[in-house]
Structure formats: C-alpha cells, structure tokens
Design goal:
single chain; alpha/beta; two-stranded parallel sheet; elongated
Length: 359
C-alpha cells in the first residue's frame, strides 16, 4: 500500500524529500501542488524532475478520495458521498494512512454538505464515519461508530467537491465528533490555515462539539478557530436522556472551562440548541440558559428538529421558537433561529448517515 501525501504537513513533507534525496525546497513545491493547485497525481507536479516524480511514485500517491454520489436540494444545498477506509480504534494518535501494521481499517461512507448563501459557500465537513457519542436525535449517532477519518480523507472533502475553489467557510459539523478524532482534525485545520496550505484565516472555520474534555481544552489552547457547543438542554438529567455523554462530560463543566478563555476578540463561541416540542422549549428552560450563560460573550443558535425514524419528539412550533428566541435576546444572549437547509435530501442538521444504495 502506497503512503498518501495528502494530509501531510510541511515538516513531514520535508522528511519525505530528505529520505528521497530531493532538495529541501521540494517540500514546499509538493505542498503547493497538493493544497493550492490540488493535483490528483504526482505526475502532475511538473516543476519536480521526472526522476524525482518517479522516485516518489514508487512509495507515495496523492491519495485524494473523489466523491461517489451527489444529491442537490431544492434550495441549492448539495450533499456529497465519499467512500473512506477508516481507522476503527477508540483513540488515535497516528495518521490512519495504512502505514502501520496496527492500523485496522473499515470501509465506510461519509457525507459532506455544501451550503450556498449568496456570495458564501460553506462546507459542512465530516471527521468520522458514524459517531461514538450516541445522541438519540442524531442519525449519525444512532448508526454507531465505524471509524476515524484520516487527515487525507478529511481534507479530500475540501478538494474534491465541485465548489472547491470558491469555498468561503467550513464547519466541522458533519458526521462524527471532531474532538474524538483530535489529531487528524487538528492536522486538517493546520493545513487549512497554514501559509503553505490553503492559507485560510481561522475565522473561516468553526468546530462543533458536545464538549469532549480534555480535548476541548487542547483545542482552546492550540487553535484560534470558532467553537460551537451542542448544548440542547440546560438541565443535566434531561440532557443526559438525549445525550448519554453528558454523564462523562457535564455541560456545566464544559461552560466552566470556556469561561476561562477570551471570546471578546475575533474568536467566537456559540451554542447549538435543537428544539423539541414540550421537552426543552419552555420559559423555564430559557431562563435556565440565561443563568447558565450569564456574563459569557456568546451566541445561541436555535435549530428546528428534523424528524427521523423511531424518535418520539417533534420540532417546536414556530411561535414557541420565536418566543424562546426573544426571551434570550431580551436577557442579553444574542439568539437567532438557524434556517434549515437541505432537509429534502437528508442533509439538514442531524440527518447525515452515509446512506447509499447498499446500506
């Protein structure tokens, strides 16, 4: 099995060119071919000599994963299906590229969603096939965990989609819990924000999490991207009934940690709150949120629940959501109702399941 170049950072590319006897500057050339020009093969790296390309091709490949399925919503949202070979390990500290004998791979499928909005094109990116977190209202969580995605497979989503050259933003809100696959997600963010990579500002990227401690602390210490926390209920027992990992990482502990960091500058923190009729949409819940978040510079996004099979709850009525929003705004918490996108193709929040013809 050849080693993928895609997903390597500049230091790793320098090690590769040194091992192959190539000049040091070739590392930056390869990085430009991978992340700026977005080539599909080593043969396309034409400012490397034929001998250098031949030597690299013996051991390495670009390793881009092309999408195998595409659905387009009536609102213009596009859902891409990617086949991936994921590392089926609970914790991962290596590259998941098949280079170690210990790597256990499972073939699966993941989805990425491109959301157009005027001059913006936001890519909703997956980081795992399935998910460990088991949130009962999420199709991804209900399918279980199938594997960690490598940095190569994550970054492939940015390169392979038809809108690659005009993407303006990215949200790690697709399939999986990003902080459960910390090393590969952070490697991807490094590539997206490095001057030798995509050269994006961290302000263009948001990572969503239920609050995986202590990886959340690592993220806040090491990264300047925006943070979104899946909150969904201010009361611990009620939240745990929907989100089992509340038992391991209580949301109050997550917020206590976040309060230790400065969000008055360019980095933002927001909270995601899916609304279920008669479960978490009362004035009591709104007032509890106000108490929980008082004094924290943040935003609240209210999300309509998108109905999934064998789940008893419905989304809150529009007037209830509007009253809930106004109650929070009146108490100083900037709150909006997020517009649903791509529901007709199962691309909306909580509906991604890597579905294809043989699943």
């Amino acid at each position: 099995m050849k080693i993928k170049l895609l997903g390597k950072n500049l230091d790793e590319l320098r090690q590769i060119v040194a091992q192959e006897g190539l000049p040091g500057f070739a590392a930056k050339q390869i990085a430009q071919w991978l992340y700026v020009k977005k080539v599909r093969s080593i043969d396309q790296m034409t400012n490397l000599s034929k001998g250098a390309r031949a030597a690299l091709s013996e051991k390495y490949e670009v390793g881009l994963v092309e999408y195998k399925g595409l659905q387009i919503s009536s609102d213009g949202t596009k859902k891409y299906l990617f086949p991936v070979s994921c590392c089926h390990k609970r914790r991962l500290n290596a590259g998941c590229d098949g280079t170690t004998a210990e790597t256990e791979l499972e073939t699966s499928a993941v989805e990425a969603v491109m959301i157009p909005d005027g001059d913006r094109a936001t890519l909703c990116v997956s980081s795992q096939a399935g998910c460990h977190m088991g949130c009962k209202f999420c199709m991804t969580g209900r399918q279980g965990f199938h594997g960690h995605m490598s940095a190569a497979d994550i970054i492939s989503q940015f390169i392979a989609v038809d809108e690659s050259d005009r993407l303006t933003n990215a949200v790690f809100m697709g399939m999986g819990e990003p902080l459960d696959n910390y090393e590969n997600v952070m490697r991807t963010i490094e590539i997206l924000t490095a001057d030798w990579g995509f050269a994006w500002s961290p302000k263009r990227i948001t990572l969503s999490t239920i609050g995986v401690l202590p990886n959340l602390k690592r993220f806040l210490d090491e990264c300047r991207c925006h943070l979104a926390v899946s909150l969904h209920n201010p009361f611990g027992p009620e939240r745990q009934s929907m989100m089992p990992m509340q038992a391991a990482w209580p949301v109050q502990d997550v917020i206590d940690l976040i309060r230790q960091y400065d969000f008055t500058g360019q980095r933002r923190v927001s909270f995601e709150y899916t609304m279920f009729a008669g479960f978490n949409d009362s004035k009591v819940h709104a007032d509890a949120l106000v108490r929980m978040l008082k004094g924290l510079e943040c935003r609240m996004n209210l999300i309509r629940f998108h109905k999934i099979p064998d789940f008893p709850y419905e989304t809150s009525p529009d007037n209830i959501m509007e009253n809930f929003k106004n109650r929070l705004n009146n108490q100083g918490i900037m709150t909006t109702v997020r517009a649903s996108r791509g529901e007709d193709i199962l691309a909306a929040c909580g509906m991604l399941a890597g579905q294809h013809e043989d699943r």
